[in-house]
Amino acid sequence: MALRLAAQLVVVIAMVQSTVTERRILLNEEFDSMERWEHVVTSYRMGENQFQYYTRRPENSFFRDGKLFIKPTLTTDRFGENFLHNGKFNLKKEGCNLAVGGGCVLKADHDIANPIQSAALVTKTKFTFTYGTLEVRAKMPRGDWLWPEISLMPANNVYGDWPKSGYIGLVSVRGNDNFTCRGQSMGNDVMESTLEWGLSEDLNHTRSMTWMSKAQGNVSFSSDFRTYRLEWNPDGLHSFVDDQIVGSIQPPEGGFWGLSGFNNTNQNPWANGTIMAPFDQEFFIAINVAVGGELFQDNCDNYPYPKPWNNSSPDTPMSSFWNKKDEWYPTWSQSSADDSALQVDYVRVYAH
Ligand SMILES: *[C@@H]1O[C@H](CO)[C@@H](O)[C@H](O)[C@H]1NC(C)=O
Ligand SMILES: *[C@@H]1O[C@H](CO)[C@@H](O)[C@H](O)[C@H]1NC(C)=O
Ligand SMILES: *[C@@H]1O[C@H](CO)[C@@H](O)[C@H](O)[C@H]1NC(C)=O
Ligand SMILES: *[C@@H]1O[C@H](CO)[C@@H](O)[C@H](O)[C@H]1NC(C)=O
Ligand SMILES: *[C@@H]1O[C@H](CO)[C@@H](O)[C@H](O)[C@H]1NC(C)=O
Ligand SMILES: *[C@@H]1O[C@H](CO)[C@@H](O)[C@H](O)[C@H]1NC(C)=O
């Protein structure tokens, strides 16, 4: 009996030691240089018709006290009010690298020019990995209509363009203090992790899975630094905030194809992949702060001012948003000028 116990103890110790040594670190980003990051520069508004353009200007992304700050500002601070209505700026002058949807020109058309300036940083050509643990300590921005996002994106689109090659959102939070949809808070006390995959952009052929976690007590994800962790293994994905599980998926035998309920098997783009496909390829890290767009649903309640644009009548959403600047802009700096900044203390990746 004693012998068996001793033997079990040895096994336990051996396991602990092996997990420790197996946590080989692949990336330990403390934000002392830009070496591993590049900016996305574009006015493309992404699938959700967001309101920002992305630039590498130093007011929108900078390092301070060993942290990365991504802070949205007003386009008018740079170009003046008139620009929103009549202006035109060629983003190629500052290294535009996403030309889709006219993304290398910032200008007014039937709507005003993108009224917000922000930043998106990616490790696309500098650091990619497949499987492992991604751990990010960060404080989310506070302010109405802000949408920070820390995610993994496919490096090579092996299975095709979005959504075929998938997307893994580690964390995103709506910066609003008081935003509720059908009685549920969707503001800065709720964080989301999301998986996306599918056959084409058309909504009937995209699939997603969103896990949410609500902050406990009188705090939000915008009031404190939290540790967000994704464990990405050859048999599943698991998301955590401060060691509390947010959500988990271990795909069944048919993989994500089997989960999707698509009917025509000869369309399966992941037929030659593993059970995790499309999440079995190289992914890179992306960190950005978006503003507005369809990330904020209609028919929700925002306090004290309602959402100033409609997704369902998308003619001039940016103009509707800008007209109500006096309502939302003050919410970006209620306790300090950096409220609206996403602050990232570190990003670490451990090998599987
Ligand atoms: C949010 O706004 C509602 C009014 O719409 C108010 O009753 C509620 O107390 C507010 N909640 C917070 C946390 O401020
Ligand atoms: C999506 O499916 C719905 C319901 O089956 C259908 O009414 C709609 O036309 C489909 N949309 C597209 C773009 O195929
Ligand atoms: C919650 O925190 C805010 C900001 O720190 C404070 O103004 C408010 O009084 C607190 N509310 C409660 C119920 O403790
Ligand atoms: C698959 O086929 C079933 C039954 O024919 C149908 O109800 C369902 O809408 C189809 N799904 C898709 C995604 O086409
Ligand atoms: C899977 O591999 C086979 C054999 O190489 C190839 O013919 C087929 O097109 C591949 N399918 C996909 C979806 O890539
Ligand atoms: C959004 O649509 C609703 C219903 O059609 C309308 O009452 C409201 O004024 C619209 N809001 C904006 C900002 O366009």
Automatic annotation (TrEMBL):
Residues 35-352 form the GH16 domain. GO terms for molecular function: hydrolase activity, hydrolyzing O-glycosyl compounds. Residues 1-21 form the signal peptide. InterPro entries: Beta-glucanase-like, ConA-like_dom_sf, Glycosyl_Hydrlase_16. Keywords: Signal. It comes from the Eukaryota. One of its GO terms (biological process) is carbohydrate metabolic process. Belongs to the glycosyl hydrolase 16 family. This is Beta-1,3-glucan-binding protein. It comes from Daphnia magna. The lineage of its organism: Eukaryota, Metazoa, Ecdysozoa, Arthropoda, Crustacea.
